[in-house]
Design a protein that fits this description.
Elements lengths: L9 H11 L5 H11 L3 H7 L3 E4 L11 E4 L1 H7 L8 H11 L20 H10 L7 H5 L4 H14 L4 E7 L5 E9 L6 H12 L17 H15 L11 H9 L11 H7 L12 E4 L1 H8 L7 H4 L4 E7 L25 E8 L19 E7 L24 E6 L2 E9 L2 E9 L12 E8 L3 H9 L6
Antiparallel strand pairs: 1-2, 3-4, 5-6, 6-7, 7-8, 8-12, 9-10, 10-11, 11-12
Helix pairs in contact: 1-2, 2-6, 2-8, 8-9, 10-11
């Protein structure tokens, strides 16, 4: 096997570290645990987290000196770090000249894996970090558990038995001693358990944690998540690629996100007067809103070809007269604060009376609605902090990223049968009152599952 950063083979590296720490109990057990359950030691060595120096001149045992940066290694094992599983998998494929997406290829089953819970357990045995045993032990298979038991046994004093000598008349004396009992659970016992689980009866090389196939759906979802992280904002085109179909199909619905249903949307933007909804909303034409924005509103071709009409509404505040025009960007409220503005969009079916629209509460959530947010405090996409572009398990609804017409969009499965698609849109070059370029938050809420929602958006115009 190839040598690591210190020029040692995996076996030599493990033996050197165990000898360096042989006066202690925890660190050698931690080294033995990692050596017998994968290639963590080699990966840590290559990444520079293990330092080995010659023995001190005055050491009669001539033990090598060693330092393992446990905390730094644990930090590097998190997502995006030098020891993270994605980084290691990508490096594995690059070394072998694999050009396609790394998560589309199954790794060699004979290759050792690096399971982060084992690294945390080892660091805890070495006294470097606390560990939550309930979380870290629950996912271990039988042979790996056997190695953990052997490591725990090695780290304790269970291999010796203390006793106190007695005087001839049976009274306790001041003399004491100890006898060697052997480990409570030896490394050899763990290796025997591994051979039994493999059914091969042979010694074999240090084995690794097996992939448990108890939950195939979870394994499939993990593979989809890895693929999505490797390709965070893929270009969406019709027909959808197999990759996008898998990712969008895996998005789990959450409890709530944004606005669902026109009635709830309008209630969010009411001014005063809960009883008379008409008096708190001002309608605008598409042309008026587009003139104010400086760019075209989304044209949802599948709906508008079927006769649906776009209605634009904003809440009427107490200082605005009936039929007031949209205020200029950079306007101030009566108290001097900068104005923020939201415009609700609703594509209504032909049979709906738009003059009574504000009284129509779409409890079913079957209409397509939208929202445009303007705020002088909005940060540009370049100023916004980076975050993962995909999460399949977000409580408020799983999300992923796509690219449509060179615009990055977020797709969120906010509720069962409902998808939110949001993006940022830059308006005209004219800056607002703050001197910054004008950015708007755009969102569409569609009564469709994510795959159908994205296909619907791609079949429309002026999106992005």
């Amino acid at each position: 096997m190839p040598a690591g950063g210190n020029g040692l083979s995996p076996q030599e590296l493990a033996e050197t570290l165990e000898r360096a720490f042989d006066e202690l109990s925890g660190p050698p057990a931690a080294v033995g645990l990692l050596h017998r359950t994968g290639n963590w030691l080699t990966a840590m060595d290559e990444a520079g987290f293990i330092e080995i120096e010659p023995p001190r001149p005055d050491d009669p045992e001539a033990r090598p000196r060693a330092r393992i940066a446990w905390l730094e290694a644990l930090a590097a094992a998190e997502y995006g770090g030098a020891l993270a599983s994605r980084s290691l998998d990508v490096a594995w494929y690059e070394q072998r000249g694999v050009d396609e997406q790394p998560y589309g290829v199954e790794p060699d089953p004979d290759e050792a894996r690096r399971d982060v819970p084992l690294l945390r357990l080892a660091a805890s045995l070495a006294g470097a970090a606390p560990v939550d045993l309930c979380s870290e032990l629950s996912g271990l298979d039988r042979p790996t558990t056997a190695v953990v038991l052997a490591a725990l046994s090695s780290a304790t004093q269970a291999h010796t038995r203390q006793y106190r000598r007695l005087l001839p008349d049976g009274r306790p004396s001041t003399w004491s001693g100890s006898t060697w009992e052997g480990p409570l659970y030896d490394w050899a016992d763990a290796e025997a358990e591994a051979r039994r689980c493999r059914g091969d009866g042979g010694a074999g090389a240090p084995w690794r944690q097996e992939r448990l196939a108890l939950y195939p759906a979870a394994e499939e979802e993990a593979a989809i998540a890895r693929a999505a992280h490797a390709n965070p904002h893929p270009v969406a085109q019709l027909p959808l690629s197999e990759h996008l179909l898998r990712v969008l199909g895996a998005l789990r619905p959450g409890g709530s996100a944004g606005i669902r249903g026109g009635g709830r949307a309008f209630r969010r933007h009411r001014g005063r007067g809960e009883g008379d909804v008409d008096s708190t909303l001002l309608p605008y034409t598409r042309a008026e809103v587009e003139d104010w924005l400086g760019f075209a509103l989304p044209t949802l071709a599948p709906l508008e070809e079927a006769g649906h009409r776009l209605v634009c509404l904003k809440s009427r505040n107490f200082w605005e007269p009936e039929g007031a025009a949209l205020p200029a960007r950079g306007s101030s409220l009566p108290n001097g604060e900068p104005m923020e503005l939201s415009i609700a969009l609703r594509w209504v079916p032909p049979e709906v009376d738009s003059t009574r629209l504000a009284r129509h509460d779409d409890q079913s959530g079957e209409w397509v609605t939208g929202l445009i947010n303007y705020s002088p405090f909005t940060r540009t996409p370049q100023e916004q902090p980076e975050r993962r572009a995909t999460s399949l398990t977000e409580p408020a609804g799983a999300y992923t990223g796509i690219t449509v017409n060179d615009t990055r969009m977020g797709v969120q499965h906010s509720l069962p049968g409902h998808t939110r698609i949001g993006w940022s849109k830059q308006g005209p070059d004219t800056p607002d009152a703050t001197g910054k370029g004008v950015w708007y938050g755009m969102a569409l809420h569609l009564p469709l599952e994510p795959i159908a929602a994205v296909e619907f958006i791609l079949a429309s115009r002026a999106i992005g």
